[in-house]
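Researcher: Quick one. two chains, 577 residues in total.
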Amino acid sequence: MCGIAGIIYRDGGGERKVGRDMTAMLQAMKHRGPDSTGYALYRPESDGFVMHVKLMESNNGHAEFEFAERLRRQRAEVESRVVALGAQVTDIKPATDHAMTITFGFDGDLKQLADYVEDVRGTEVLSLGKSLEIVKDLGDAKTVAGEYHLDDFVGTHAIGHARMATESDVDIANAHPYWAYPFPDVAVVHNGQLTNYHQWKRRLERAGHRFQSECDSEIIAVYLAERMAQGDSLEDAMQRSLRELDGVFTYICVTEDALGVAKDELGAKPLVLYESDDLVALASEEIAIRKVVDREIETYDPYEGEVMVWTR
Amino acid sequence: MDAVTQNGEPEVLFDPRGLVELDETVPNVAEIHDGRARFDAKDLTTRKVNAELRRLVYEEGVGDVTILNPSARHSLGVGILTRCKITFEGSLGYFGVGLIDGPEVQINGRVGWSVAENMMSGVVVIESNAGSLAGAALRGGDLVVKGQVGARTGIDQKGGTIIVMGNAGSMTGFMMQRGRQIICGDVGPGLGDSMYDGTIYVAGKVKALGIDCVEGEWTDADSELIERKFRIYGLGEPPEFQKFVCGKKLYNYDSLEPSERKLVL
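Model:
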């Protein structure tokens, strides 16, 4: 019973404290999933790329033997690999002790770069893009927002996820949102279960895609990326997913300038939608939207089998 | 979200371990005038709003309560088992006014999933839209939604009447066992799927009928019922409806209810 949320500002280039808004929405839905919280946030597009990399996770909460040393080596290795492929690194900062953010200019093959970084044992590229930043960690929205200083994040749109793990482990790799590897600036959050997960995973793996987790929701991100690689628009890919993915789902997909939502054909998972001239907000529960729009508002539930896309 | 209550103490919103005792003291904040009470729910927890409502209708014997700023919170006004009038000035979240028996509820806003679930008797009027599962397992009373509703309206309905002025989603009247639904707009696929009994009236387009749901024969009693309900709730002139009932093709059991057995044998 995860909680998902999305917000996109429509008043033309209006940049708001999207990190703070998304935290308020997710914190209001903490009862839907207290295990982990994730964000896909979009900052105003810049020339360079931003890559969020998750390093090794400590399994038992406290630092294992030589854990700090291994983290340091991992960090150095990631850094040298990015540079080795010809990226002009402008900034590297440790987001937390087990995550790092690299800002760089690059005109080569992004997939190759992501693959090379992920080849370092224990690392995962959480997101890569000109405006997308994915942040996910264990704990509720307030905890994660505090650790990663998201309250000051200024951006144009975002999605978020409060996770109650049902199909896979509680750890960062299995937390949402998922980046649609290797496509820059595409991310997905999902509430539900996919029943033809293994079938799709085998199919997509044969097509050369990589999976970082055992989570069924990762399929959606990779599936959409695969469709878009074959020339589908976001909306077409999402329409097609309604026929090809089995199970119950409501998912939100974001790109650098659009936000789309799809509901399965049974309408089994909730979604409440609020549209106004200056913003579109959607969430599993209206109580989350009311944290951003604090007044009586007209909202409704989209129907089963619906795909809706908004651009900013 | 505000993590601090009025008196400055940290507010417990969710505790996965279930170890925290939630504050159940009655806040005593309502203003009472001539048998009418009014209070603002803005700074109260869900539990306190319900505790205050129960105090007013059970202990103070107030027959008319207005609650301001429900702010789309879940489980408000549940389990009220006496005749009274309750007005919500705003939207409710999930499970609003569930498990009630007797009240006349007016909601000037929207409701989330499972409104008036298992209502035994009473009236619930919603001025705007409702989420899925409106009137789930309804046993009696009238549920009127002036906007649209989501999927599975009146799932497992066992009595009472659901009136929807707008459209309805898929599987409307799923496994319905008794009672009536009057839908003025269009309905999604799977209308009346696996229904046992009861009647569904639809004025708009039906996307697809569910398994064992068939068109029924119109009688004067149907016209009378619809006119009466529209008159009571001031819904204007009723449109023309189609009637849907159970085809009874799935009836392949022979066990009767004890009371029915007496009648048959």
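The mean pLDDT of chain B is 91.
Researcher: Thanks, that's what I needed.
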